[in-house]
Amino acid sequence: MQRALRIYGEVLRLVRRLPADSRPYYAKYARENFVNYREVDANDSAALDELFLRAYNHSLWVLNKYTVDQAAASKLKEICGGS
């Protein structure tokens, strides 16, 4: 749970780097996704790792869409375990 909260917080920090008019949409999108997956078994590390990696990859996609440097997601990569 603690790791998921750290990832969520980092995703919201990345949302702040987006253009002001797109921030509310992506903040809401991130929250909805984290809420939707709260039912995942906390003991299933493979499923959690897959979800966290998906969060990282999707964050990169959004950053690229708005031409924000991917290096901004380095902390998220570290938390998610992305390679």
UniProtKB/TrEMBL annotation:
Residues 2-56 form the Complex 1 LYR protein domain. It holds the Pfam family Complex1_LYR. It comes from the Eukaryota. InterPro entries: Complex1_LYR_dom, Complex1_LYR_LYRM9. Belongs to the complex I LYR family. LYRM9 subfamily. This is Complex 1 LYR protein domain-containing protein. The lineage of its organism: Eukaryota, Viridiplantae, Streptophyta, Embryophyta, Tracheophyta.
